[in-house]
Amino acid sequence: MPWGAARRSDRSSSTRAAPAAPAHRSGQCVAASSFRQDGGVNLLEPLGLGSRTARNRIVFGPHETNLGDGRALSDRHVAYYRRRAAGGVGTVVVEEASVHGSDWPYERAPLAALAAPGWAAIASACHEEGALVIAALGHAGGQGSSAYSQAPLWAPSRVPEVNSREVPKAMEESDIAAVVDAFADAARAAVRSGCDGVEVNAGQFSLVRQFLSGLTNHRGDEWADRPRFAAAVLAAVRAAVDEVDPGAIVGLRLSADELAPWAGIVPEAAAKLAAGLSEFVSYLTVVRGSIYSASATRPDGHEAPGFNLELAASIRSAVRAARGGARDSGGAVAVIAQGSIVDVDQADRAVHAEQCDAVEMTRALLADAQLPAKFAAGQSERIRPCLLCNQTCQVRDARNPIVTCVVDPRTGHEMSDHDAEAPRDSLAADEVTVIGGGVAGLEAARIAALGGHRVRLLERSDELGGMVSVAARGAGRARLGLLVEWLAAECRRLGVDVQTGVDVPLDGAAGGVGAGPVIVATGSVAAPVGYASTPGGVPVSPVASVFTAAEVLAGAELPVANDAGVEAVVVWDPIGGPIGVSVAESLSAAGRTVVFVTPDQIVGNELARSGDLAPANNRVQQAGIAIERRTLLREVHDEEVEVEDRFSGVRRRIGFAAFVDAGHRLPGDALFTALAGTRADVARAGDAVAPRTIAEAMLDGRRAALALDGFGRLSDGVAFPLAAH
Known about the structure:
The protein is α/β, with parallel strands linked by helices. The chain has three domains: 3-15 and 34-382, TIM Barrel; 431-525 and 678-719, Rossmann fold (3-Layer(aba) Sandwich); 546-663, FAD/NAD(P)-binding domain (3-Layer(bba) Sandwich). Helices cover 29% and strands 16% of the residues. It has 20 helices and 29 strands. An eight-stranded parallel β-barrel has the order 3-4-5-8-9-10-11-12, surrounded by six helices. Strands 15-14-13-16-27 form a five-stranded parallel β-sheet, with helices on both faces. Strands 18-25-19-20-21 form a five-stranded parallel β-sheet. α3 runs parallel beside α4 (173-192), α7 packs across α8 and α12 (439-450) packs parallel to α20 (694-707). The N and C termini lie far apart (62 Å).
């Protein structure tokens, strides 16, 4: 039977009169002035989806959170989604639930059979705030994990999973039938729980996509007709939903480009596929990626924002042509764009240009839950910027980190952390001095000012932002600077007295910083070269041309060649994070010959957590950067570096014109130590405690300021979690 035979012969169920939508609070997100005077569609204009109407065209898309109570949705989920709904988002798509017990892709992955109470609570909370709620449903198939179930993975064919190399079980007819039925059962339960509809995943980590793709569907039976399984699932879901609530929303998340043209889904084929499947659905969300390009679905800042917009536009055109161009509330199919769309102006332009009907702004809403409300109020400049860093929001990780955001530490911790943005009564309106204008100091100053304190911020250099401003100069890292700009602007708005070029001396510092509380956020200093090998570092010739990564990014002028005519710059990266790679890429882009030395088997080992591991290694290779893997630093001579193979112990030398140390840094805590010896009301934050990431710096600064008002307690300058408050 051809796949089209699985289609519903009677389409009336999708267009017939439906019960009224739940009585949602309308919210305050659409201002009268928000509609375009030229008659075009605005991002804030309502959008019909099935029998429902979203109050605007901003979507909080499905993503892993690790907020679950085991495999059940938790109260933390409720608070997390309610906060975005209260901020004005039009539609919330809840974290994907596995429809069948054969799927357990990560430890806290929700299971549909356990999800009904959570769906009900989330739907109730978000409806109260005026947002629609859609339950995401899926099965990871061969891209799942057997670590938790200790059972074989299910997939269309025996194609090994790319990361684990595990060979899945090729699904039998009974398995296929069970999964199709499970999708229907899950959809039925979600709508009965109060959700406005469901979304079927045929995007990344999806069994449905694996059946659609020549990369993973190598079957020789009737299921070799690749769209057949998707059509069967959608037909079953549509029928199940209509049993409970005729006209409720059915969405499809579709990979329209697997970036593998030799066998995968390509845009031209995806357009036809979307047109064929559109009769089952209320909307289509256009994504990209495959088993070979998992990071492509959610890349970091190296990829331009809005990279899928043209793809979404082509799918939209195909769907409209297939459906006669209908865009009424009964039979319309909306196309939702996804793909690093984090700026409201770009989202608004995309909707107005009819590239899409709505926009997923998931990471942007992690950064600022109030984004829709601020946009509606004409305060776009006050929206916290998403840095596209993926440092703390990409949590499909065996460590089970809780989803959060480097620019908003409260994200994911709504039930345990104090809302620093809410009005609060200060214990005393003190004059607070913050020393250090990096992100920890800026955030501390901002939060203290929000608490009603008179705040003075002193920065030694002429530039705010500390190491974040330096890192932002690296290749592909420019968006980091947006955080510094936002923090500085908010501090100015709140009346913080920001003074640059002020060097607070150690001698007599206690008398020079004021009588009120002091927060020291003086950052870090470079550790000795080779600090990771031994605390004292490795021997370094006093005449060697040695630079830190920070100096290079700040624009230090490196020698062109050494006395022997060697022009290479050796970059030593014992950490495996973004800085070493960024320095190497920047030097290469400037025309320098670069030798990258790492103790790991691969460049940027820690970049796996942000999804940039494979892309970074590809960029480095394409740039022609020489890589010395499995290599330890032993000595830095005048014009040569001595290294050792970490497995064989064989030593050799590499000539250089300049040596760049992208290694560890140590706390710049001398001022804190001096002040702590003379007064009790001093705290420290950020790298001055321990050099870590932007996320910890922001959190430290925030907590240190909140502690001024009794939220949390200070111990050695560190503020602890605020759950008791």
